[in-house]
């Protein structure tokens, strides 16, 4: 069954008593026991809630995993997974990753004696050189944020299997509609479900899918113990959003390709980062491991003075953080999403003062291009 069909069907057969087409929102903290020592299967919403379970089972099916888990945010999901690792253990991490993830690793978990090495995970040989005896995991973004480098997930997963370490893939930018990392050999997939999965900029959520049932039990223990679970109303919102994942991403990718091509020919644009463009490093890898190129576009303008104009003078495109919703958004990574990364590291990676990032929505592509064009012209 195709991913698009599976997504539409999430929660459809949940309420067999009434036949409700949409899974109900079980807005309750606790559940009544039918008798002494008996349970309906639900006792307390932190441990399990029917609405959240419908979402967790749905994402597990979409990603081809043993079990799914829903958290109160993407960062809560990542933090929970880091509890799989112990004092003195080491992880290899994508170097140009989301700044919030970097902050979590460096300013929270490093103080608990977890160690992290940041490398270009689009280069398997660089990853292999970074492996140490105490390495227990690799944390990789399938498409990096914001420079859109492509990870060879199949190759990285094979390396992890050979070395006996966990392969964790943040697949937020591609979603299971475009790539299923578990099918490529990864152990765990993670999503900021706030983004493309929910898709409407109206809820914050994180999702995790685990391939191995035994490892999934460990993750469930941590989820229940820490308790950073997604509430039933937000679980319902994510389910609702996921039902249109395929149609949204089809339109967003179509728009992104057109905008990236237009930016590539603009005299005030120095460089465009989009995996769908010919000549993009890793394009061939993505063609062999994914069903599309996503809808994120990053670009460098010719002069820093253009940055503020594009952020503030676009009329349809909103100057806002986050991504993956139906509305097109523009951000300035150096001072927004990646401000917590040290300036010298940002400079080395290319996250500079002329780099902008577009999350392309479902508006008409010609209208979005016209909006960018008038903002560029206004500077001259």
CATH class of the largest domain: Alpha Beta
Structural class determined from secondary elements = alpha/beta
Radius of gyration: 21 Å
The largest sheet has its strands arranged as 1-7-6-5-4-2-3
The pLDDT mean sits at 94
CATH topology of the largest domain: Aspartate Aminotransferase, domain 2
Large-scale geometry:
globular
The CATH homologous superfamily of the largest domain corresponds to Type I PLP-dependent aspartate aminotransferase-like (Major domain)
Overview of the molecule:
The strands form 2 sheets. Strands 1-7-6-5-4-2-3 form a 7-stranded mixed beta sheet, sandwiched between helices. The mean pLDDT is 94. α2 (50-63) packs parallel to α9 (232-242). It is globular, with a radius of gyration of 21 Å. α4 links the parallel β2 (90-94) and β3 (115-119). The chain has 380 residues and is of the alpha/beta class. It folds into 2 domains: 3-242, Aspartate Aminotransferase, domain 2 (3-Layer(aba) Sandwich); 245-379, Aspartate Aminotransferase, domain 1 (Alpha-Beta Complex), CATH 3.90.1150.10. It has helices at residues 3-8, 50-63, 74-82, 99-107, 124-130, 153-163, 175-178, 213-226, 232-242, 245-264, 283-289, 305-313, 343-349, 365-379; strands spanning 67-71, 90-94, 115-119, 135-141, 166-170, 188-192, 206-210, 269-273, 296-301, 318-319, 329-331, 355-359. The protein has 14 helices and 12 strands.
Task: Compose a concise summary of this entry.
This protein is an alpha/beta fold. Helices cover 38% and strands 15% of the residues.
């Amino acid at each position: 069954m195709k991913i698009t069909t599976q997504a539409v069907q999430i929660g459809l057969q949940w309420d067999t008593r009434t036949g409700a087409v949409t899974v109900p929102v079980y807005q309750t903290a606790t559940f009544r026991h039918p008798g002494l020592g008996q349970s309906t299967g639900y006792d307390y919403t932190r441990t399990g809630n029917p609405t959240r379970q419908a979402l967790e089972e749905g994402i597990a099916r979409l990603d081809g995993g043993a079990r799914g888990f829903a958290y109160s945010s993407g960062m809560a999901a990542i933090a929970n997974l880091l509890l799989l690792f112990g004092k003195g253990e080491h992880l290899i991490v994508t170097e140009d990753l989301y700044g919030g993830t970097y902050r979590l690793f460096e300013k929270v978990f490093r103080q608990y004696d977890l160690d992290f090495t940041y490398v270009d995970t689009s280069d398997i040989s660089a990853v292999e050189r970074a492996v140490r005896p105490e390495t227990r995991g690799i944390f990789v973004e399938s498409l990096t944020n914001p420079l859109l480098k492509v990870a060879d997930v199949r190759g990285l997963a094979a390396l992890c299997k050979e070395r006996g370490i966990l392969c964790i893939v943040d697949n937020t930018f591609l979603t299971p509609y475009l790539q299923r990392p578990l099918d490529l050999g990864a152990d765990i997939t993670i999503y900021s479900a706030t983004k493309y999965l929910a898709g409407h900029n109206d809820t914050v959520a994180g999702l995790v899918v685990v391939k191995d049932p035994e490892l999934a039990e460990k993750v469930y223990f941590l989820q229940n113990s820490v308790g950073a679970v997604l509430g039933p109303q937000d679980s319902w919102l994510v389910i609702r959003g996921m039902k249109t994942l395929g149609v949204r991403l089809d339109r967003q990718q179509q728009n992104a390709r057109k905008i990236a091509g237009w930016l590539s020919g603009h005299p005030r644009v120095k460089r465009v980062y989009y995996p769908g463009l010919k000549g993009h490093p890793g394009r061939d890898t993505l063609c062999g491991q994914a069903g599309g190129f996503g809808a994120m576009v990053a670009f460098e303008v010719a002069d820093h003075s253009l940055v503020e104009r594009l952020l503030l003078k676009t009329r349809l495109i909103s100057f806002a953080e986050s991504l993956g919703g139906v509305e097109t958004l523009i951000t300035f990574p150096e001072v927004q999403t990646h401000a917590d990364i040290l300036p010298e590291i940002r400079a080395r990676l290319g996250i500079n003062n002329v780099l902008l990032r577009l999350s392309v929505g479902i508006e008409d592509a010609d209208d979005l291009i016209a909006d960018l064009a008038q903002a560029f012209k206004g500077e001259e």
